[in-house]
Amino acid sequence: MFAILPGCIVNESPRYEGDVTFRWSFGGLRCSEDRAVMGVNVIIPGESLANGGRYNCETNGFDGIVLHDFLPGTYEFHLEGVSYTNELLYEAHGTFTVDGDVSVNVDMTPVGSPPSFAYLSWLFPANTYSPSPNCNQAGITHIEFRIDDGEWERAECWEGHGGNQIQTRYLAPGYHDVEFVAVDAQGRPWYYFIGGIDTQASRPTSHTVSLWAVGGASVRWVLRSWYGTPLSCYEAGVTRVGINFRDYYTGELVYGDVGDWHDCIDSPTPTPVVYEFLRPGRYVVEMYAQAYDGREYFSPIDSPVIDVVAHEFPGPNAALPVYLTQE
Question: What's the whole-model pTM score?
Fold first, then answer.
């Protein structure tokens, strides 16, 4: 005989009221570092705050404020950093959730600027001097970098190495492409990095990139007819040539399935193409071109092989010829 038991009601885990501690900064600066900021206005829709939500920037060495007795839940907030004449200098928006005491760290950005940025630092691969070389041991004086194909910026190597960080320009929150080139005193590129970072509104993110050693390659193409006769770009009807490097051991293509494309211009022969940011290794050089009338030109199945050596950069006079034959 079976007994039918009454159903049980399971309550969700209880949530607790608590205090909210705001800690603020201004584009990475503390109150003592940006003396133009007199105070911060805290606006939380639906909440009545002491002194109308207007607080000193710093109190007893603390850059922030503690607000008491918030009921459990999620709240929106708006912070305004204001000057001594009540001019709006910085601002930030966001949310926080109360389930007991909560801390909200906010880095405000200048009015009119995108609301996020990042801190960047870099490392170099091991070498004969150290398993984790510093700038001097790596032979690097400067780092050149850019974000989202923007303008190249330049920093001294030490500024982002050994626990140091540089601050990016202000950015929209989200994913951003970054590219780094480490150069020596003569401006030669020795290390390289390309990748991505994420940024968050009003909360700077930190990123450390590990640069890799690079070497160079110099290649040129020679177009030939179906009979093997050399052709100029004009005679071949070719305006652009695609170049790629296939890893000799793994088969991986450096420039993906699309390749790296260059204009085919005779002067009197096509100008060599010089590469400076290749990972050291052995590569098969592959090329392809298509004429405006549909004729195709391919590098041979046994296309030339090139060795890329770290910190060696062959110039245009040492370009490897690759023959593209009409098929």
Answer: 0.78
